[in-house]
Structures are given as structure tokens and as C-alpha cells.
């Protein structure tokens, strides 16, 4: 198995795309590494790639299926994933390839019809994550959840959390763990904790790999087309409904309306359909300031322009302190 460079080497790209297209797979640009196996006469007969710890673009030439080539390819890809410091490996596949991955130790997490199956290979995977969540269960008759990126935490986020806290006994607030945003995960988590410290019934968690992560919902980060966003949003919604919500007794999930982000609007619509009232989805109109929605992207634009006074009314004092001092509150 050798590394391919389809983004830089024309011959690699041509051979790679040809094999993918013959297998009905489209090439992707958002990949960290691409690998291939060549026949003795120099023909690309197997390929696979990864984005972080997600395996993608896996294809075996029809004339070479049924042998050890798939195992050789997958073993090499998984070694690469774990050598990069990841502790879990994820893959999307169709129904007809699911068993091949299960034979290599992958376990089902969720699926959308027969369109998309999501599997993981991990030393401590979803069962361990759910066990840890169950250890953080807080009793209450009305238990809600919010999931946010908070890049950074704004008064709009605070408004949503306050509303959920008033209307419920317990609120579980999940902050995206991925370090794919302008503000690192640890900073965003700290700002959310500081900005909600006075709300005693709000309990804050990192999302890990199972809620809007690059594993469960890469289109959220990669800006792929609307159809892919919808399918992956449905998958993410099912994971939340079938696994996360039962672990904590969650009966409602709050989201902000999305007039600005098409991808997030598609995501909210997928939640609505997949939840079907269990848990209930509560869509809250976004808070505004000076006629515009208070959004993290608005704050980031003002920050880039150096307009700190325009930022002040849009964020809690704890966030403003960090933005002006560089120190966590």
C-alpha cells in the first residue's frame, strides 16, 4: 500500500478518480491522506482515504474483490488512523458493504434507511461514552438538551440557555468538542461555563465524537451539498434520539431558528422529522441587536475588524473579557 497525492500529482488523480467512478463513488477534496494498492502491472486496484479518523472513498476493483485485498487496505488505513493518535476509527458505508466492515471489528452505531450506515472500531466506543453520560444523570420531570458550537459564546446563546433553564428542571448543554473552529474547543467550553455559571440547573458536557462531530456529521464542517447534509443530519439526529437522549432522560431539545445558515437550517429540519416529538424539538427565535440576529459569525467579523465596542453588547461580560484580554475568566 502506498500513499497517493491526487491533489498534486495528475497521474495519481486520474487513476484514483477512474477507480472511484467505476465503483460509483465521487472523489472528495477534504481528505488528510489517500492510499492505494497497485497490481504487478501498475494498475490501481484498491484505494482508501481518511479525513481525521473517518475512513472514506474506499474502492476495490471488481476483478480483485473477494480476496485479501480489502483486509490489506483496511488494516493499513486503520494503522494510519491510530498512528495519528486517534482512539477510534469511523466509516460510512452502504448496506451491501456493512458485513465486510463488521468482520474487521466495526460495530453499528446508527443508519439511515439503507442509504448510509455508520460504524466504529474503538477500544472504548459508544457504549463507554453512554455509560459515562448515565453517570451524569440528574433527576427531574422536565429534562432538556441544547447543543452548540459557541464560536464564541454570545448573548444569543445565553438567551437560548436561559429560556431552556426557565422552562425545565434540568438542562444538559453540549458544547462541540471539535477543534475545527476559530476558537479552540477548550476555550469555547470554558466560555460557556463562565457565561452560564449562575444557572444552577444547567449541566455542561463536551460532545465527544457522537454529537455533530466530524465523525457523525462531516458536512457540518465540510460544506458539502444539501443532499449529503440532509442524510448526515438524519444520522446525527438518530444517534441523539436512540442513544444520547435515553442515557440522560432528555425529553426536549432546544435549537435556535436559523435565518443565516442553510446547513444548520437543514439540520434543524432533519431533527424535527427524525425526532417526531420524542424528544420534542423546541425552535426558539434568534435574539437580535440593532435589527440583526446576534450570531457568533457576526462577532467574529467584528473581531476581525477590531471593532470591540460593537462586540460589547453582543456577548456576555465573561466572553468580552476573554476577547479583550486573551485570558479565560
UniProtKB/TrEMBL annotation:
Keyword Chaperone: no
Listed InterPro entries: Acyl_CoA_acyltransferase, Citrate_lyase_ligase, Citrate_lyase_ligase_C, Cyt_trans-like, Rossmann-like_a/b/a_fold
Principal EC category: ligase
Reaction(s) catalysed (UniProt annotation): holo-[citrate lyase ACP] + acetate + ATP = acetyl-[citrate lyase ACP] + AMP + diphosphate
Entry annotated with the keyword Magnesium: no
UniProt-listed Gene3D superfamilies: HUPs
SMART domains: Citrate_ly_lig
Keywords: ATP-binding, Ligase, Lyase, Nucleotide-binding
A molecular function GO annotation: [citrate (pro-3S)-lyase] ligase activity
Pfam families: Citrate_ly_lig
Citrate lyase ligase C-terminal domain ranges (all copies): 143-323
EC annotation from Swiss-Prot or TrEMBL: 6.2.1.22
Domain of life where this protein originates: Bacteria
Protein's job: Acetylation of prosthetic group (2-(5''-phosphoribosyl)-3'-dephosphocoenzyme-A) of the gamma subunit of citrate lyase.
Name of the featured protein: [Citrate [pro-3S]-lyase] ligase
